[in-house]
Design a protein that fits this description.
Layout: H1 6-11, E1 23-28, E2 49-53, H2 71-81, E3 90-95, H3 97-113, E4 120-123, H4 142-152, H5 157-160, H6 163-181, E5 195-200, H7 208-211, E6 222-227, H8 233-236, H9 238-259
Parallel strand pairs: 1-2, 1-3, 3-4, 4-5, 5-6
Length: about 260
C-alpha cells in the first residue's frame, strides 16, 4: 500500500493490509458516527476487500478538531487527502450523511483525478436531487435538539441520559446535522459507475420513493434493496446488509479482474 502522510492517515482507518487486497472499500458514517461503525465489517466481506472506514474531524481520535459544517469544504479537503490511496480499484459505501458524502466524493474524484469508484453503495438517504422540505433542526435549543435525536433513534439511550457525554457530543451532532441539512445538490452529468441503494422497510424518514431516484444519478446499473428495520437498519439488519454487500463486492472484483486481464 502507498505510504500515507500524517494528514491522510487521520482520515482513513486502514489497519493492516494483506498482499492479496484487490479492492478498497471506503466507508462513510452517518451523522454522529465514527469509524468504529465499520470496525468488524471486514470479517464478513471477501478477503480481497480492504475496508477503510473514514474518520471525520470532531469525533473519535479527531475529537479536538473542529467538525465540518459545509459540504463543499469537506469534499475539497477529503478528496485531496484520498488521492494517494487510489492505487487500486475502489468502491464507496455511505449511510445517511455518509451516503451524500460518498456521492459527492465520487463526483469530486471525477473532477480532480478523472476516475470514479467501481461502484457506489448508498444507504438510508434520499437521492440528492430529491427536494427536502423538512425544517432545519441543527440550531434548535438543546432540549428540542435532544428530542430530535430521540425521535431519530440513532443515539443510544444510555448516551442520551448521560449529561456529560451529551455535552461533549452535541456540538459534533449539530455540525453533522448542519452539514446534511444545508447541503445543496448541483446538477452535473450522472456517474458512470453502478449505484446500489439500501433502505429500511420501516424507515419513515427515507421511504422507497425517495430512494429509487438514485437511478437517475448513474448511466450504469442500478439496484434498490429494502431491508428490515428503521433508519438504522445497518445495525438491526447488519448481517443481511453485509451478505448483500459481499455478493456485490464479489462481482466488482470479478469485473475488475476481467478488465485487467
Amino acid at each position: 500500500m502507498t505510504n500515507m502522510t500524517k494528514s491522510t492517515s487521520a482520515w482513513f482507518q486502514c489497519g493492516p493490509v494483506s498482499d492479496h487486497v484487490e479492492l478498497k472499500m471506503f466507508c462513510f458514517p452517518y451523522a454522529g458516527g465514527t469509524a468504529l461503525v465499520f470496525k468488524k465489517w471486514s470479517d464478513y466481506l471477501p478477503s480481497a476487500v480492504q475496508v477503510i472506514p473514514v474518520e471525520l474531524p470532531g469525533r473519535g481520535p479527531r475529537l479536538q478538531e473542529p467538525p465540518f459544517v459545509g459540504m463543499p469544504a469537506l469534499i475539497d479537503e477529503l478528496s485531496e487527502a484520498i488521492g494517494q490511496l487510489l492505487d487500486k480499484p475502489f468502491v464507496f459505501f455511505g449511510h445517511s450523511m455518509g451516503a451524500i458524502i460518498a456521492f459527492e466524493m465520487a463526483r469530486a474524484l471525477r473532477r480532480r483525478y478523472s476516475c470514479e469508484p467501481q461502484s457506489l453503495f448508498v444507504a438510508g438517504r434520499r437521492a440528492p436531487q430529491v427536494p427536502n422540505s423538512d425544517p432545519f433542526t441543527y440550531h434548535l435549543p438543546k432540549d428540542e435538539f435532544i428530542k430530535e435525536l430521540i425521535e431519530l433513534d440513532g443515539t443510544p439511550k444510555e448516551v442520551i441520559e448521560n449529561e456529560e457525554l451529551m455535552e461533549m457530543m452535541i456540538p459534533m451532532l449539530r455540525a453533522d446535522f448542519q452539514l446534511v441539512q444545508t447541503y445543496e445538490y448541483t446538477v452535473a452529468p450522472p456517474l458512470r459507475c453502478p449505484i446500489t441503494a439500501y433502505g429500511g422497510l420501516q424507515d419513515s424518514h427515507v421511504p422507497r420513493d425517495v430512494l429509487s431516484p438514485w437511478e437517475e444519478m448513474t448511466t450504469s446499473k442500478f439496484a434498490l434493496h429494502m431491508l428490515t428495520g428503521d433508519h438504522f437498519f445497518i445495525r438491526s439488519s447488519q448481517d443481511q446488509l453485509l451478505r448483500s454487500l459481499a455478493r456485490e463486492l464479489h462481482q466488482v472484483i470479478v469485473y475488475s479482474r476481467a478488465d485487467h486481464a
